[in-house]
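stage 2 :: seqdesign
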């Protein structure tokens, strides 16, 4: 390869990595945790002592209460069943007028309280995966662009590394300088997890800005008819306009019984009501259906008033477009091989975050001066790398603590406060010191997660382990392991900072 060509690819790899690295660090770290979103919902219910079973008989009074309070909600709302999505029976409704999603949780008290949805710490972590804390739509579009640049970084990295692939694949040259160590670590993580990074970049772009990517084909190739052609890939049955004739809806328990007759193996998780209270109103029951395919989702559509079957959908009935989209979603979230794929994606997510963090540190190491004031661009990038990356880590750990001991209204405030406090600390402190201090802060906050759960529940996770329950030990034990790793990183960073200071003093002498 010509030197000029390799230099062009190096520049492409460097700048696409720098432009997307901070966003993708948050996406990968939050995404690694979000793989276990359902398990975390169950853990939160246990810690908050909400594990008492909820009767399905409470569903109809919940629906009646919401429709009486908000008649416009009849156009479309979700009834989330207790189980995979946590122990609560929840009704979710999006208010188009205010642009706010609300949730109502069925509890022993009556009537249920109206709450703003997606304010709990689990939803906030899930949203961080594809918004980085930015406004939802802005974050989605920005991450879609970041995924495209991420793909270019992968391509250029392959071109750069290909000539020395075999020689340097497992080379971790300890003691040959920080630059060489970060380069070796960056390369081995990137190469060994390359197939998964290709999947993440591709699926991330499709799932965030897929409709925008279709725009050229919609207007230039299909004369504005592409979305109509693809409509069956996104809906179970064709939309039917409401008749305007009122009709009572059947109780959820009866609708679930009817759905089980058409899909006996499906484990129902959610009911979506459309035009509830109308003779043409429908309810779509979504659930998990064990299948040998990558997609294991199914749906049954019934008339909400009569229970008449309007359509069913199972993996064997998927159109090619539906199979592609659902399969891509499952590949992106690791939802295809049970806990084996979940734990694999958890490790890959953490490794991916380290990949972007090490890429930025490598860029800084190349440009760092051994003595004297550092160039402004190096100082700014060092502060941003430490503040954004470690601020997100500390903020997510703080979210777990807030989720255990504080009301939902405080969760987002806790994350924002910790994140910007870390960013400010990285700006005002010297990078070598800020890195050590922020890593210790990450270790401390992560260490406190099991103790916050203990305080909230009244029992430690060791008690749950002795009782034969693995959920709390898995979550809180993982937190302890991560706290230990952050402590080790802080110790290593502190030793390196001391060596740099000694080196500077020696050179000055």
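stage 2 :: out
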């Amino acid at each position: 390869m010509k030197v000029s060509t390799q230099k062009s690819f190096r520049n492409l790899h460097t700048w696409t990595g720098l432009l997307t690295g901070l966003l993708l660090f948050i996406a990968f770290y939050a995404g690694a945790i979000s793989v276990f979103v359902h398990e975390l919902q169950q853990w939160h219910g246990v810690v908050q002592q909400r594990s008492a079973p909820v009767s399905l008989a409470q569903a109809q009074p919940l629906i009646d209460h919401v429709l009486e309070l908000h008649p416009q909600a009849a156009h479309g709302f979700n009834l989330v069943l207790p189980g995979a999505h946590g122990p609560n029976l929840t009704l979710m409704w999006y208010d188009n007028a205010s642009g706010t999603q609300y949730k109502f949780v069925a509890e022993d008290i009556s009537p249920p309280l109206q709450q703003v949805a997606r304010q709990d710490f689990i939803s906030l972590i899930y949203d961080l995966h594809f918004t980085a804390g930015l406004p939802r739509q802005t974050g989605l579009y920005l991450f879609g662009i970041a995924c495209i640049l991420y793909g270019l970084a992968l391509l250029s990295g392959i071109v750069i590394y290909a000539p020395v692939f075999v020689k340097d694949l497992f080379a971790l040259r300890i003691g040959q300088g920080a630059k060489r160590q970060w380069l070796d670590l960056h390369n081995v993580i990137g190469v060994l997890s390359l197939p998964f990074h290709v999947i993440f970049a591709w699926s991330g772009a499709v799932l965030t800005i897929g409709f925008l990517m279709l725009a050229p084909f919609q207007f230039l190739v299909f004369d504005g008819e592409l979305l109509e052609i693809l409509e069956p890939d996104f809906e179970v049955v064709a939309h039917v306009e409401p008749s305007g004739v009122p009709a009572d809806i059947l109780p959820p328990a009866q609708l679930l019984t009817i759905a089980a007759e058409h899909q006996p193996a499906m484990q129902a998780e959610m009911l979506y009501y459309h035009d509830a209270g109308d003779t043409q109103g429908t309810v779509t029951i979504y659930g998990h259906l064990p299948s040998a395919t990558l997609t294991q989702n199914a749906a049954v559509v019934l008339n909400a008033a009569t229970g008449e079957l309007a359509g069913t959908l199972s993996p064997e009935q998927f159109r090619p477009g539906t199979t592609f989209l659902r399969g891509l979603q499952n590949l992106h979230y690791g939802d295809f091989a049970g806990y084996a794929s979940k734990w694999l994606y958890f490790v890959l997510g953490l490794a991916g975050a380290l990949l972007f963090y090490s890429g930025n540190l490598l860029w800084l190491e190349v440009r760092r001066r051994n003595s004297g004031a550092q160039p402004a661009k190096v100082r700014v990038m060092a502060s941003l790398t430490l503040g954004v990356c470690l601020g997100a880590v500390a903020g997510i750990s703080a979210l777990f603590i807030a989720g255990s001991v504080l009301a939902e209204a405080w969760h987002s405030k806790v994350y924002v406060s910790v994140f910007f406090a870390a960013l400010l600390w990285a700006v005002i402190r010297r990078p070598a010191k800020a890195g050590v201090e922020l890593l210790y802060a990450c270790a401390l906050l992560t260490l406190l997660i099991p103790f916050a759960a203990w305080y909230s529940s009244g029992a430690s996770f060791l008690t749950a382990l002795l009782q034969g329950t693995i959920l709390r030990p898995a979550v809180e034990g993982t937190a302890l392991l991560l706290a230990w790793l952050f402590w080790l990183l802080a110790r290593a960073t502190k030793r390196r900072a001391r060596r740099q200071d000694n080196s500077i003093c020696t050179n000055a002498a």
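stage 3 :: structure notes
- DSSP finds 17 helices and eight strands in the chain.
- Residues 350 and 397 are 14 Å apart (CA to CA).
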